[in-house]
Structure to design on (207 residues):
């Protein structure tokens, strides 16, 4: 069975729950709940496992705080003996409108502290990532407050559908490959949701 490490970036602690910087945590929590699996505390983070179509997904929520996420990723990549192409990282992105989802096979960190640290400690930017837009509706000098601020009520209502799209994209990444997965996921939210409907059970049913 092929193994994949899926890393959701965020900050640990109740005070950071449902904040914009914790998009990665929220996606993995939704996936674990839909898969009837639970997270357990492990080295450098919380881990859960789920399977889908002959692939095993190791879900990791680092406990190292955002700017040291690479420590957890490097440890688990070595522990699981995975090639770089079997790693996918989920992060928030200020440069995308809220709810927009983008997958890339590699690339720069774009100023994201978690991605920056992962790239530094892995010695490569050649790993896949899914970025979830959080928008940039903040005034000058208020970026940190915005990123660490809680989602609005309307934004929270959109999160289940966003999580479903991202989970479907990760499964596609592992089963049909990153190029075809990107073609499906890298569309406007409504278009991506329509595509996901064609295979809706794979997005939400327990593996």
């Amino acid at each position: 069975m092929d193994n994949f490490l899926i890393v959701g970036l965020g900050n640990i602690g109740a005070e950071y729950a449902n904040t914009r910087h914790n998009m990665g945590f929220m996606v993995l929590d939704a996936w674990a709940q839909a898969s009837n699996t639970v997270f357990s505390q492990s080295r450098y983070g919380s881990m859960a496992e789920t399977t889908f179509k002959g692939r095993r997904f190791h879900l990791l929520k680092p406990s190292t705080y955002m700017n040291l996420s690479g420590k957890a990723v490097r440890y688990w990549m070595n522990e699981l003996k995975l090639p770089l192409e079997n790693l996918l990282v989920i992060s928030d992105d200020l440069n995308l409108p809220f709810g927009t989802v983008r997958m890339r096979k590699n690339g720069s960190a774009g100023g994201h502290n978690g991605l920056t640290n992962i790239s530094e400690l892995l010695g490569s930017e050649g790993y896949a990532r899914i970025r979830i837009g959080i928008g940039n509706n903040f005034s000058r000098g208020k970026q940190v407050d915005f990123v660490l601020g809680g989602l609005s009520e309307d934004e929270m209502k959109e999160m289940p559908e966003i999580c479903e799209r991202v989970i479907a994209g990760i499964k596609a990444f592992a089963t049909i490959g990153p190029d075809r997965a990107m073609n499906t996921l890298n569309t406007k939210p409504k278009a991506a949701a329509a595509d996901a409907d064609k295979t809706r059970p794979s997005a939400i049913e327990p593996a």
